[in-house]
UniProtKB/TrEMBL annotation:
GO molecular function: DNA binding
The keyword DNA-binding belongs to this UniProt entry's keyword annotation: yes
DNA-binding as UniProt keyword: yes
Keyword vocabulary terms for this entry: DNA-binding, Transcription, Transcription regulation
Basic and acidic residues composition bias: residue spans: 199-235
Disordered, as annotated region: 199-260
DNA-binding region ranges: 27-46
Residues covered by the HTH tetR-type domain: 4-64
Protein name in UniProt: TetR family transcriptional regulator
InterPro entries on file: DesT_TetR_C, DNA-bd_HTH_TetR-type_CS, Homeodomain-like_sf, HTH-type_Tx_Regulator, HTH_TetR, Tet_transcr_reg_TetR-rel_C_sf
Superkingdom field: Bacteria
Organism: Bifidobacterium anseris
Length: 260
């Protein structure tokens, strides 16, 4: 095996081990044993585990970066087409580079932050934000909010992709359609000045007022019912009283009076 072939072999083995176990759990001894070489061979090619890991991450970063930014290119493309292309680009990378994706999303050692997966997502979010900003201006939406929506879109797609990497119950196209359905229908119906309908301070204040008005109304209604009941009882008592005998008593008195 040539030196180049040996190096590629170690990269493949390292990627597989880092994907399944994570950086910290993999040792140079395990890498060498899996490749059936001595530890000095690993050190000779990469200087140690850290060097091998850096090469693996760099390759995966380059592959994913090229794929995503190619999908994000195209000035005349419809924004929905860009959302579809970028979603499919990420899912295609996950599908074709499952181990590489696992390496990127796993906890990594403290290395150069410019080569981290988070840094790549930051770059992608920046580009998505630029695209959204132009589209927002055409739609007369606040462009200053574009970076936030970009982070939401990228985060939603990446975390859904992570879930799909372990739960392949849908095809790539089916999952992409679900993501685009949520992302695009949300984008196409955005409000210029969105508000929380139920959990904002104003909403809670309005609800408290409605509740108070209802309590007050219920109390007024109850008081009226109670008053009506009292009036009804009083009227019923008066109508059931025995008739007066004053007239009869006067007649008896008159008939017994000898002078009458």
């Amino acid at each position: 095996m040539s030196s180049y072939q040996r190096r590629e072999q170690l990269i493949r083995i390292g990627r597989s081990l880092f994907a399944s176990k994570g950086f910290e759990a993999v040792s140079v001894e395990e890498i060498a044993a899996t490749a059936k070489v001595s530890k000095p061979i690993v050190y000779e090619h990469f200087g140690g585990k850290e060097g091998l890991y850096a090469v693996v991450v760099d390759r995966e970063m380059r592959a994913l970066n090229d794929s995503l930014f190619q999908a994000l290119s195209g000035e005349n493309a419809h924004p929905r087409q860009i959302v579809e292309r970028t979603t499919l680009a990420l899912l295609t990378y996950i599908e074709e580079n499952a181990e590489g994706f696992q390496v990127l999303v796993r906890d990594s050692p403290t290395t150069d932050p410019t080569s981290s997966f988070s840094s790549l997502l930051g770059d992608v979010s920046t580009r998505v934000g630029e695209i959204l900003e132009e589209w927002f201006k055409r739609q007369k939406l606040p462009a200053k909010h574009a970076p936030y929506y970009a982070q939401m879109l990228v985060g939603m797609t990446v975390y859904t992709g992570q879930y799909w990497a372990d739960q392949r119950k849908l095809s790539k196209e089916q999952l992409a359609a679900l993501i685009v359905n949520l992302a695009w229908n949300g984008l196409s119906r955005m409000e210029a000045k969105p508000e929380l309908r139920f959990e904002s301070g104003k909403a809670r204040k309005d609800k408290d007022k409605v509740d108070k008005d209802k309590v007050d109304k219920d109390k007024v209604d109850k008081d009226k019912v109670d008053k009506d009941k009292v009036d009804k009882d009083n009227n019923a008592g008066e109508s059931s009283a025995p008739p007066s005998n004053d007239g009869a008593d006067d007649a008896v008195t008159a008939s017994s009076d000898p002078t009458s």
